[in-house]
């Protein structure tokens, strides 16, 4: 009888998802029990002299915990997240399979991070003009202990680009902002991050970084949070101990636009003084707007309140 670890693992995943969609708080324990039972059953069906090593069992169990952290709850599709944002135009864009982001959830600290989908192009959202060239990144976070979120956990989602310092090219310098909400059952924190089109950097490695806010370092992607290798690749700094994940985005290199990159960088250089001509408008939403930097290079904010949209604000974080 043949014994294929890939088939066995697929069975574990399928059955763990079936169990976990019941939103059972003890789902991780059940998945591990199922895993151990299946290993014993399948092992008995083959040569009884075959021994499955302890390291193998531990490795499978570790993978199953990571899978079950996300599978424990029915994660929304990107289009459904867009509908929660009441953006039916963007939701329609995300119905296309090529907008799905085929990534493996990353477990770090107290959280498991996942990027669900990315869409880039002009006029994709009903909240932007037809000629605005933007990227929309849909992502999610769950707690590894299976508990609900009592409040927003303080997670940053930002694009980064190899060959450029993280504090030079990021969500702030790319005219970005995010929409965030916690699922109705309280178990999943969802994000839609909007920024200038990341595809203009397609001739470089493009990352999506997700990380937990640090009281010591804040949320701005500075040198305390990231480090740059000699070849220009980016990683989290060794001293940054908060939960984090770094995803690499596959982009067709033919979509690179060096002229657009140059324009973006020159625009950022012109704004280094920290001055801002942001117009809040009569219907600016409750948000924080970046208005400049302080003497330490940290971003400074100004709160805007009492309205429903932020059509006139270039950089914002919805509360």
Based on the model shown, name its key terms.
alpha+beta; Immunoglobulin-like; 3 domains; 8-stranded mixed β-sheet; 3-stranded antiparallel β-sheet; 6 helices; 13 strands; 25% helix
Class of secondary structure makeup = alpha+beta
Q: How many alpha or pi helices?
A: 6
Low-confidence stretches: 1-32, 42-69, 273-297, 304-319
Which CATH C-level class of the largest domain is it? Mainly Beta
Count all strands and give the number: 13
Give the helix proportion (percent range). 10-25%
Q: What is the end-to-end distance?
A: 57 Å
- What share of residues are in beta strands? 25-35%
How is this structure best described in words?
It is a single chain. The chain is of the alpha+beta class and 319 residues long. It folds into three domains: 67 residues, no CATH class; 193 residues, Immunoglobulin-like (Sandwich), CATH 2.60.40; 48 residues, no CATH class. 25% of the residues lie in helices and 26% in strands. An eight-stranded mixed beta sheet has the order 1-2-3-6-5-13-11-12, with helices on one face. Strands 4-7-10 form a three-stranded antiparallel beta sheet, with no helix packed on it. A hairpin with a 5-residue loop joins strand 8 and strand 9. Helix 1 packs antiparallel against helix 2, helix 1 packs parallel to helix 3 and helix 2 crosses helix 3. The longest helix has 19 residues. The chain is globular, with a radius of gyration of 22 Å. The N terminus and C terminus are likely disordered.
């Amino acid at each position: 009888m043949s014994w294929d670890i890939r088939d066995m693992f697929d069975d574990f995943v399928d059955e763990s998802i079936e169990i976990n969609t019941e939103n059972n708080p003890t789902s991780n324990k059940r998945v591990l029990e199922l895993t151990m039972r299946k290993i014993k059953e399948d092992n008995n069906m083959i040569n009884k002299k075959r021994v499955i090593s302890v390291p193998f069992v531990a490795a499978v169990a570790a993978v199953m915990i990571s899978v079950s952290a996300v599978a424990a709850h029915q994660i929304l599709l990107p289009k459904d997240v867009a509908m929660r944002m009441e953006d039916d135009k963007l939701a329609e864009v995300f119905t296309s399979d090529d907008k799905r982001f085929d990534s493996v959830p990353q477990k770090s600290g107290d959280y498991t991070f996942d990027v669900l989908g990315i869409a880039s192009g002009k006029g994709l959202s009903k909240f932007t003009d037809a000629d605005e060239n933007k990227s929309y990144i849909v992502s999610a976070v769950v707690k590894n202990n299976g508990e609900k979120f009592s409040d927003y956990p303080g997670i940053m989602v930002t694009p980064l680009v190899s060959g450029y310092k993280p504090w030079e090219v990021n969500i702030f310098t790319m005219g970005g902002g995010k929409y965030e909400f916690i699922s109705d059952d309280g178990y999943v924190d969802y994000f839609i991050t909007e920024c200038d089109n990341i595809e203009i950097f397609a001739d470089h490695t493009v990352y999506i970084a997700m990380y937990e806010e640090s009281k010591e370092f804040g949320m701005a992607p500075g040198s305390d949070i990231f480090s740059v290798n000699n070849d220009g690749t980016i990683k989290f700094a060794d001293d940054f101990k908060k939960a984090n994940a770094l995803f690499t985005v596959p982009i067709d290199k033919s979509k690179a636009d060096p002229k657009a990159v140059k324009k973006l960088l020159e625009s950022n250089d012109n704004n280094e003084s920290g001055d801002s001509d942001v117009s809040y408008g009569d219907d600016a939403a409750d948000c924080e707007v970046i208005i400049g930097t302080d003497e330490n290079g940290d971003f400074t904010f100004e709160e805007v309140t009492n309205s429903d949209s932020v059509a006139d604000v270039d950089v914002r974080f919805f509360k």
